[in-house]
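Predict the 3D structure for this chain.
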Amino acid sequence: MCLLRGVNVGGYNRLPMPDLRVALAEAGFGDVRTYVQSGNIVLDSPARARAEVAGAVGAVIEQRFGLTVPVVVRTPAQLRKVLVWDPFSEVSGTEPKRVNVIHLMAEPDRDRVAGLLAEDVGPDAIAVRGEEAVVYYRVNIHGSRITGDWLARRLGVEGTARNWRTLGELVAMTSG
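Done. Predicted structure below.
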Protein backbone atom coordinates (compact mmCIF):
# COMPACT_ATOMS: atom_id res chain seq x y z
CA MET A 1 0.00 0.00 0.00
CA CYS A 2 1.40 3.37 -1.04
CA LEU A 3 0.04 6.59 0.40
CA LEU A 4 0.98 9.71 -1.52
CA ARG A 5 1.27 13.00 0.30
CA GLY A 6 -0.29 16.13 -1.11
CA VAL A 7 -1.75 15.03 -4.44
CA ASN A 8 -5.02 16.34 -5.86
CA VAL A 9 -5.53 18.67 -2.92
CA GLY A 10 -7.08 22.02 -3.72
CA GLY A 11 -6.02 21.85 -7.35
CA TYR A 12 -2.34 21.29 -6.55
CA ASN A 13 -0.18 18.37 -7.64
CA ARG A 14 -2.83 17.07 -10.00
CA LEU A 15 -2.31 13.37 -10.55
CA PRO A 16 -5.03 11.45 -12.42
CA MET A 17 -5.46 8.06 -10.77
CA PRO A 18 -6.34 6.18 -14.01
CA ASP A 19 -3.13 7.45 -15.63
CA LEU A 20 -1.15 6.60 -12.50
CA ARG A 21 -2.48 3.05 -12.51
CA VAL A 22 -1.35 2.61 -16.12
CA ALA A 23 2.09 4.14 -15.45
CA LEU A 24 2.69 1.90 -12.43
CA ALA A 25 1.57 -1.21 -14.32
CA GLU A 26 3.89 -0.32 -17.19
CA ALA A 27 6.72 0.07 -14.66
CA GLY A 28 6.25 -3.53 -13.52
CA PHE A 29 3.90 -3.23 -10.56
CA GLY A 30 1.08 -5.75 -10.44
CA ASP A 31 -2.60 -5.59 -9.48
CA VAL A 32 -2.52 -1.79 -9.29
CA ARG A 33 -5.66 -0.31 -7.74
CA THR A 34 -6.41 3.11 -6.32
CA TYR A 35 -8.95 4.41 -3.84
CA VAL A 36 -10.40 7.90 -4.29
CA GLN A 37 -8.29 10.72 -5.73
CA SER A 38 -6.02 11.44 -2.77
CA GLY A 39 -3.24 9.02 -3.67
CA ASN A 40 -4.08 5.67 -2.10
CA ILE A 41 -2.51 2.86 -4.11
CA VAL A 42 -2.74 -0.86 -3.59
CA LEU A 43 -0.21 -2.78 -5.66
CA ASP A 44 2.10 -5.76 -5.84
CA SER A 45 5.77 -4.94 -6.10
CA PRO A 46 8.79 -7.03 -7.01
CA ALA A 47 10.66 -5.04 -4.33
CA ARG A 48 10.04 -6.03 -0.72
CA ALA A 49 11.75 -3.26 1.26
CA ARG A 50 9.40 -0.36 1.95
CA ALA A 51 12.07 2.20 1.01
CA GLU A 52 12.60 0.48 -2.35
CA VAL A 53 8.88 0.44 -3.11
CA ALA A 54 8.52 4.11 -2.10
CA GLY A 55 11.51 5.08 -4.24
CA ALA A 56 10.27 3.16 -7.28
CA VAL A 57 6.74 4.58 -7.05
CA GLY A 58 8.11 8.09 -6.47
CA ALA A 59 10.39 7.72 -9.52
CA VAL A 60 7.48 6.71 -11.77
CA ILE A 61 5.46 9.70 -10.59
CA GLU A 62 8.36 12.10 -11.12
CA GLN A 63 9.32 10.73 -14.54
CA ARG A 64 5.80 10.36 -15.90
CA PHE A 65 4.01 13.29 -14.28
CA GLY A 66 6.79 15.70 -13.25
CA LEU A 67 5.75 15.64 -9.59
CA THR A 68 7.93 15.00 -6.59
CA VAL A 69 5.71 13.71 -3.80
CA PRO A 70 6.50 11.83 -0.61
CA VAL A 71 5.40 8.19 -0.68
CA VAL A 72 4.59 6.35 2.55
CA VAL A 73 4.47 2.56 2.27
CA ARG A 74 2.54 0.28 4.61
CA THR A 75 1.82 -3.41 4.39
CA PRO A 76 -1.77 -4.60 4.68
CA ALA A 77 -0.86 -6.12 8.07
CA GLN A 78 0.42 -2.76 9.32
CA LEU A 79 -2.81 -1.03 8.31
CA ARG A 80 -4.90 -3.75 9.98
CA LYS A 81 -2.93 -3.26 13.22
CA VAL A 82 -3.83 0.45 13.24
CA LEU A 83 -7.49 -0.39 12.65
CA VAL A 84 -7.43 -2.88 15.54
CA TRP A 85 -5.54 -0.45 17.82
CA ASP A 86 -8.25 2.23 17.33
CA PRO A 87 -7.33 4.64 20.14
CA PHE A 88 -10.57 6.60 19.67
CA SER A 89 -12.97 3.69 19.28
CA GLU A 90 -15.74 5.63 21.00
CA VAL A 91 -16.05 7.84 17.88
CA SER A 92 -14.18 6.21 14.99
CA GLY A 93 -17.17 4.08 14.03
CA THR A 94 -19.75 6.87 14.21
CA GLU A 95 -17.67 9.88 13.12
CA PRO A 96 -14.85 8.41 11.01
CA LYS A 97 -14.09 11.66 9.21
CA ARG A 98 -13.17 13.33 12.52
CA VAL A 99 -10.50 10.72 13.29
CA ASN A 100 -7.37 10.99 11.17
CA VAL A 101 -4.41 8.63 10.98
CA ILE A 102 -1.13 10.30 10.13
CA HIS A 103 1.12 7.68 8.57
CA LEU A 104 4.59 8.90 9.44
CA MET A 105 7.65 8.56 7.19
CA ALA A 106 9.60 7.06 10.11
CA GLU A 107 9.17 6.31 13.79
CA PRO A 108 9.60 9.50 15.83
CA ASP A 109 11.99 9.84 18.74
CA ARG A 110 10.46 8.76 22.06
CA ASP A 111 11.26 12.08 23.75
CA ARG A 112 9.47 13.99 21.00
CA VAL A 113 6.44 11.71 21.32
CA ALA A 114 6.42 12.19 25.10
CA GLY A 115 6.63 15.96 24.63
CA LEU A 116 3.76 15.94 22.16
CA LEU A 117 1.54 13.79 24.36
CA ALA A 118 2.23 16.10 27.32
CA GLU A 119 0.93 19.12 25.41
CA ASP A 120 -2.58 20.40 25.94
CA VAL A 121 -4.18 19.99 22.52
CA GLY A 122 -7.73 20.47 23.75
CA PRO A 123 -10.36 20.09 22.65
CA ASP A 124 -8.71 17.58 20.31
CA ALA A 125 -6.85 14.42 21.28
CA ILE A 126 -3.75 12.64 19.94
CA ALA A 127 -2.38 9.12 20.26
CA VAL A 128 0.95 7.91 18.85
CA ARG A 129 2.19 4.38 18.37
CA GLY A 130 5.18 3.46 16.24
CA GLU A 131 4.91 5.13 12.85
CA GLU A 132 1.29 6.21 13.25
CA ALA A 133 -0.29 9.18 14.97
CA VAL A 134 -4.06 9.34 15.36
CA VAL A 135 -5.88 12.61 15.91
CA TYR A 136 -9.46 12.98 17.03
CA TYR A 137 -10.80 16.38 15.98
CA ARG A 138 -13.58 16.91 18.49
CA VAL A 139 -14.92 20.10 16.94
CA ASN A 140 -13.63 20.64 13.41
CA ILE A 141 -10.51 19.60 11.53
CA HIS A 142 -10.28 22.98 9.78
CA GLY A 143 -10.38 24.97 13.00
CA SER A 144 -7.84 22.85 14.84
CA ARG A 145 -4.27 23.89 15.48
CA ILE A 146 -3.23 20.27 14.90
CA THR A 147 -2.14 20.36 11.28
CA GLY A 148 0.32 18.16 9.44
CA ASP A 149 3.02 20.83 9.70
CA TRP A 150 2.35 21.37 13.41
CA LEU A 151 2.63 17.64 14.06
CA ALA A 152 5.76 17.27 11.90
CA ARG A 153 7.52 20.07 13.83
CA ARG A 154 6.79 18.39 17.14
CA LEU A 155 7.62 14.84 16.09
CA GLY A 156 10.47 15.67 13.72
CA VAL A 157 8.88 13.37 11.12
CA GLU A 158 6.52 14.15 8.26
CA GLY A 159 3.61 12.00 7.23
CA THR A 160 0.39 11.85 5.30
CA ALA A 161 -3.09 11.80 6.79
CA ARG A 162 -6.09 9.63 5.99
CA ASN A 163 -9.40 9.67 7.83
CA TRP A 164 -10.64 6.58 9.65
CA ARG A 165 -13.16 5.76 6.93
CA THR A 166 -10.39 5.68 4.32
CA LEU A 167 -8.27 3.48 6.57
CA GLY A 168 -11.15 1.02 6.80
CA GLU A 169 -11.62 1.03 3.02
CA LEU A 170 -7.91 0.42 2.43
CA VAL A 171 -7.91 -2.49 4.87
CA ALA A 172 -10.96 -3.93 3.10
CA MET A 173 -9.24 -3.57 -0.29
CA THR A 174 -6.25 -5.58 0.94
CA SER A 175 -8.18 -8.28 2.78
CA GLY A 176 -8.81 -11.53 0.98
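The first helix runs from residue 17 to 26.
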